[in-house]
Amino acid sequence: MDFAELQALSRLPASREDLIDLFGNVVAADKFFSIQGCFCVIVLRKGEEVCISDASTRRLPYLEEQPLNKGAYGKVSRVVVAKGHFFDPKPVTEGFEYNVRDLEMARKDYEINNKNFPRAGQEEREIMDKILGGSLRSGRCENIVDNWGSLEIAPDTYSLFMPKAICDLRAYMTEHHALPPATSGAKAEFIACAAGLASGLAFLHGGMKTQEFEDMVCYHMDLKPDNVLIFHEGGRYVWKLSDFGMARVKIRRRGPGGYERERDFNSWFRRRWHQQQPADPSLSATVNRRAEGTYQPPESVSQERKMTTKSDVWSLGEDVARWARKWTFGN
């Protein structure tokens, strides 16, 4: 066995052919090959993508998994990652690159549409990583859900990891804060949180750049209470935009030509289910090719369906106005 072959065996998982060369025995090689996944636990990397070509040779790092919610293009679970299996190259707290205790986070799983899914090295993949993953060259916006990395398991699973929220805006308003705010301080907090969402939307519309420093504009296309997550940070509540599975992106090229064609995220993933009846009684029966319901602007159901950044602004205004009406006039 030459040096290159020995180097290939320096880390697991090993291929069956390399194991046969190592053991000199097919039976022993197959026995080890079948169980080596127990010793090859995946380590997630903050803000980075981990790609696995064969899930049977690797072990997932979760101690617990609990389904939380599902949408048209993905499902969300609460997971607990075992200590030592989450790598942060720039740790903010504790000073350790690997988590020193079990770590709770949220995981969103998409089913890959292999026909359209962009691969590593393609410009579309860079764009997807920026929006779905939140790895933004131009800085961090506190009103967009943080990126804790991603995991692609060939051939058809793509998972995003993020901090686990307290709840989404719908649950926050209907379960946790069903009664109107009673004090001026509580009302001011609500207004500040809503203003934070506007800042997040402004960042999507005008605060991002590609690796070549070209302007990138993202239309969320699905702004509704379910896609606003609530966190408690620094002694205050922070509302954050999430779920960019319906988003569209345009890049402004330098020189003549301006914007190039749109990139449509929902063509990269398979639709998990088709909504037959509105899941939320507040939603109308109108179903269009983008998101569904009351929170979409009028142009979403027009024949041309010309959606712009103004469409997102309309949806955000409807989100905020609906709860303001509820608190003012009741149900």
Automatic annotation (TrEMBL):
The Protein kinase domain, residue ranges: 62-331
A single MF term (Gene Ontology): protein serine/threonine kinase activity
Gene3D superfamilies documented for this protein: Transferase(Phosphotransferase) domain 1
Bias kind Polar residues: ranges: 276-287
Family annotation (Pfam families): Pkinase
SUPFAM superfamilies: Protein kinase-like (PK-like)
Segments of this protein annotated with the region Disordered: 276-308
Cross-referenced InterPro entries: Kinase-like_dom_sf, Prot_kinase_dom, Ser/Thr_kinase_AS
PANTHER family registered for this protein in UniProt: INHIBITOR OF NUCLEAR FACTOR KAPPA-B KINASE EPSILON SUBUNIT HOMOLOG 1-RELATED (PTHR24359:SF1), SERINE/THREONINE-PROTEIN KINASE SBK1 (PTHR24359)
Protein name in the entry: Putative ankyrin repeat protein
